[in-house]
Amino acid sequence: MITLLKNGRLYDPTNQKNGVIENIYLEQGRIIAKPHGAIKITKTFDLTGKIVMAGAIDMHSHIGGGKVNIARMMLPEFQESKKYSEPEAHICTPNCSHHATPSTTDTGFRYIEMGYTAAFEPALMPINARQAHLEMADTPMIDKGCYAMLGNDDYFLRMLASKKDQKSINDYVAWILHSTQSIGIKVVNPGGINAFKFNQRKLDLDENNSYYQISPREILKSLSRAVQELGIAKPLHVHCNNLGAAGNFQTTLDTMGASDGLPMHLTHIQFHSYGTEGDKKFSSAAAQIAEALNINRHITADVGQILFGQTVTASGDSMMQQLNAKHANPNKSVMMDIECDAGCGIVPFKYRDQNYVNALQWAIGLELFLSVEDPWRIFLTTDHPNGAPFTSYPHLIRLLMDKSFRNDAFAKLNLDAQAMSNLTSLNREYSLYEIAIMTRAGAAGLIGLNDRGHLGLGAGADITVYTDQADREAMFSKPDYVFKDGELVVKEGKVVKVVWGATHTAKPAFDMGVEKDLKDYFDKYHTMQLANFKISNDEISGDGRGSIVVHKNKHTAPKKTGES
Amino acid sequence: MLCDDLLLTEISPMRIKNACSKSIDFFEKALQANATKPSLAGNPTDLNTAIKTAADILRASHQPLFAGLGTEVQGMRAIMRLAEKTNATLDHMHSEATMRNTLALQNSGWQTTTLTEVKNRADVILAIGTDIVSSHPRFFEKLVWNSDSLFDKAQAEIIYLGVAEESVQAGISPDGKKPLVIPAETQKLPEIINALNVLSQKKNSLSKKLVSDLIGGVSIASLRLILEKLKTAQYAVVVWSASHLNYAHAELTVQSITQLISTLNESNRVAGLPLNAGDGDSSVNNTSTWLTGYPTRSRLLNGQPQYDSYHFSSRHQLKSCDALLWLSTFNPHQPPSCDAPIIAIGHANMQFDRQPDVFIPVGVPGVHHAGTMFRMDSAVAMPLKKLWATDLLSLSEVIHRIEALLT
Question: Number of C-alpha atoms within 13 angstroms, CB side, residue A108?
């Protein structure tokens, strides 16, 4: 069975196709070369005048695991807001659902309806991995994967404090990837979540965790090296120290130097780009951060844009969320210390355009997008749900692509915030090609999904087809067609077939001898057995619905381009 | 506590290493649960007929109640699909207790901890209104009197508030150190906890009272002592059991406890540990929450989830439902009395005051079939293994077969 997508205009940066008109042939879930004349084309979609991109990939979105579920449980009123039609802010449209805590079913449906075919949970707590995978197994339509959190777990910190060699650390990191079925490693407030359990309230990059006498810098150095030496594609995913604190941009700048030039990805960097200038001692440091990103080519970042409206922040960073809890709106929050592994903090937020800090946060995110020159090293996220629900991506894309729309929105912000931002002097408008880099090619390359994010021969046939519209928000909200693994699953923005997607993992080789010490540790200090900590393949694929894809290490050059 | 260090060494008589009274009872009952046949109004029948009759009852029903919900994650996934198909209301058998915590969580949030943190960090444990061990027998053995902890902490000091002197045996340390016991009537806990909150403020309306003055029968001196111990701890843990706070509007007591914890955390580290009530309550609520956005006391009406922590209680729904599907797989709890047709699916040892219209015995998760279960602290989900073979189907299999007949 061969499907032909005919005469679409392709935006496929991996294969350097910038708006060329080509045919694409699909068979058994893959993009194939033009078949010989005698072979029958089963179905043809005439895409004349349509825009064709690979399915989008959200490389950072909290879609599964304990935090999100606690947020749902604490905020039943959010479910009611599904049909919220009178948003507070001028810039919102009916397409912004304002629903920050969708069920797993809604999550899958809302993603695929926007043309996203994969999303990655960036904060899987190893001890909570089973729950994250259970939730993702119940998330239909899209592929998924996780980054496992390390760097606040007592096992790792003990290793570092007792000066274990790098090989032992690498073995432990690889063992975590295998045991938790993850594709990358993340560190949240390096050492800080752990320090909070010892009642430390703040941790700078070169400040020691009071118990272990280890600094965040040492943690970053060790973990970024482990990731590099294990050869997995995804660079260490770093949520820096001092999230949300005025003046934290210095920590962020210093963090870029903490890996001695090894690759690191700094996540939701908007929340880490704050200065202390002005009467309110809160200012934009986007220019400094963007300049550093432009120079430091080993660093990638996603933005974590905020958009106005009601959402909830769900973070592993219990230390900083404890401070943020006083801003909770509605006024409730959950803080947890979890299993000598990590922690979490869940704080509802309502970002308001007339609030000085919120308005400036909005501007800082956009300043970063527009000032970072290389679209392959900056990614489009709202840190769902922390900055805004992922359903607001089409709106965010319009802000990036349409200067007058952006400036009109800016003109309605808190006036003091306007005075502190240079946003209107930034004339850049993202092109469709650049949007395709940020949301497809770049994201796939970063994570190491070699057969996703592009339209070359052999690629998985995750494809989104849009009608070219001047209103980019309308365009990206409602694709004409979405194909998942070659099957038509969305037509005119509505799901027409339910599929379940795969779980992407990386499983580098390691020395199983690491389990000897781990078993002893579990027996002595944990309250579950080592064997039950590990997630077997069967737990994900045993029901016949889920499946596991193991990615080869390191990004390899994309395959040759398709026929024209 | 979902201990996974149990070792079944002999079946007859039952010998289990690391067992507690609850686990021995659980395995003994599961072992006996083999021979029972499905029945219709008490008359034995074959499985197909029982499943068909159950489907017929649900097909004829407009607002069925799915209650009990004594199951694990996989069972709950199946039940949710059936509920979607039948517009059912869902409520767990222990929700009267669970709701006290849920309402507090939804009103103000909370600050909590988990079992491994307790084991390694807690140097003061305050138990409010519960001896802990009657619901969680191995709490002290596994988490408190353990010799191994990561940070060389002092042995935890135990404080009981609102617990009778004769119930605190488990809180005596192996070397004989007695706990601090401050008895009080359970009904007085609201005013006692509120007083602790007041006293935790620097300037407070109780500061001029005599230390010998009593609040809810407890002296202000005793309350100050509790606060002092919480504040000087490196990591204090406050334990409560919503099941034991068995009086009207106990959610306000839970909220008052969590508020105290929150205040103390402004400068100290103190964390809460709510004890669960069992029968899969955390598994059921977690699963329901990710599938629909809501914990239980929910309804699926025409595919749309609804949530109502008051009206969707079994107590209210039993009066108006037109079919009751009662589910209890871990324990042979029998269904409540109800005028509507009753389908009971669960533990083979279930006994009935009034024979249900349909009874289908199923396997016990973690004994007769595999499954997945959330621990009391919701942070950890565990795989349940199959221990021995049986003819009994799992709850999910039975529910799938009923669902298949409704399409």
Answer: 24
